[in-house]
Amino acid sequence: MKVDLNNKKVLFLGYGAVAKCVWNYFDDFFIYKKQNIYIVDQTKDAFTGPKLKNLKKEQKIVLNVNTNTFNELIEQIKLQKQDIIIDLSTKTPTYYIIKQCFIRNIHYINTSIEDVEDQMLGTSIDCQQQMVQSISDEFKKPKSTILTEFGQNPGLIQHYVLYALNELNNKKNDFHQSSLQKVISDFKIGTILMSEIDNMNKTKYTNDKFKLYNTWSVHGFFSESLDKTELVRGKKNKFIQPKFTNINKINSLLYPDDSVFFLDSLAIKSTLNSICPILCENQIKLQNYRGKLIHHGEMFELARYFGDYAPFMSYVYQTNTYLDESIQNFYKNFPNSDENDLWMYVNQEKNCHVFNGQELSGHNSIGCTIFCGDQKIDKIYWCGSILSSSDPIIKKEYTPTIVQVAAGVLSGLSFILEHEPMGWIEATDLDTNYILEKSKPMLGKFLFMEIPTDQFKGPIKFKEIME
Q: Is the peptide bond preceding residue 335 cis, with omega within 30 degrees of 0?
């Protein structure tokens, strides 16, 4: 059932690949008036793609959104209480915008917390979430809903975890926090890896050795992967977990215990091995792989949700071939460069290219791999989405990865607008059945399965990529 937005205005902050995709699937979720849609981006060049011709010139605004211009923007388009901001931007004042949405009673959703002023905090997603919590605490009786970090991962991935734990529970459809915590204990779940394999292949694609390529935001990938690897584990969970020897005990004042910790190595050079299903000639096949350890908001939210007995959790990402090749090309072209130089290069838009659906074919597999056991791995389970570019839901302009993210944004926004104002909420505050029902049409093959332990080439072992 579509949600009626006829009496609401909708503001898109940032119009990159994900925003374009969200806007183009908007009609599948909402009833709205096109004159109530506004899109803002820093550059006019961003205003490309289907459906934009339906918007008037004054609805497409070129603006650098900052603390000086944000309120002027709101006044300019006359955004009122209960109107909506979909923030898919980078390098904007996220904390300030969230606070203004509380003050003005505007609904708000984003896929990541990316405040332009974050320095030390920008390296710690756990700290970013604490910052939003402190802003939320200022408003005792909120009259709008602020949903942060809700795309595919973080976002839907938390619900894959909750769904899987519920499937293991004897009392089906029991999503109570205490019940799912008990499942962790009963099944001796020591490790949950958010496992993703980007299995996209080129169809028509000209390789420019001076460009950086990705199937979703280039800037978004490097903003995560050029940080120190941040990880989390419950203090009292003693079940099977990978071991780390290169722990960096920085930020000790922020972290009085060892539940959250950093590795010495950058995320782009830190890897773990995992296993998840992929598609092979439209059949499910299991694949062992080694992926990059990139910190994501789902780990820290789930750790708080599960408490002291939270498993070790991390995102383990096998990037697509063309991203890896473009990074190698960068260092070949600029042999004396370091990661800071790479970051400066990424920040020049002309150096980046996000593939569209016409350039690539293949699939993206994203889900949670759950390892159970005490001294050894006794059981393995997986739950998630495998979306292929040949799936009927895929519009030709978009890759499966971007559609999966859009599914999270659209289902999360639907939840906000069908419920009374809740203040600041995270993924685990949303109803899992509702979210999956809304998003499944865009997820391709949604699966929960047991993986035979003899198929996994263990043990789970950390490895650093050397120069």
A: no
Classify each residue of 433-463 as buried b or exposed e, where b means 16 or more C-beta atoms within 10 Å of its C-beta: eebbebbebbbbbbbbbebebeebebebebe
What pLDDT is stored for residue 253 in this prediction?
40
Domain with CATH 3.40.50.720 in the chain: 3-147
Q: What is the pLDDT of residue 257?
A: 54
Q: Which residues of the chain have pLDDT under 70?
A: 119-122, 204-206, 246, 248-258, 466-467
Among candidate residues 202, 360, 166, 197, the one with its CA nearest the CA of residue 286: 197
Res 255: pLDDT: 45
Nearest to 232 by CA among 259, 272, 194, 192: 259
Q: What's the confidence (pLDDT) of residue 124?
A: 84
Q: Is 444 left (phi over 0), alpha (psi -120 to 50) or beta?
A: left
The class that CATH gives domain 156-401+442-464 is alpha beta
Domain with CATH 3.30.360.30 in the chain: 156-401+442-464
Instruction: For the domain covering 3-147, report its CATH number.
Output: 3.40.50.720
What's the pLDDT at 205? 61
Q: Are 129 and 297 in contact (CB under 8 A)?
A: yes
The confidence score (pLDDT) of residue 252 equals 39
In the prediction, which pLDDT does 357 show?
84
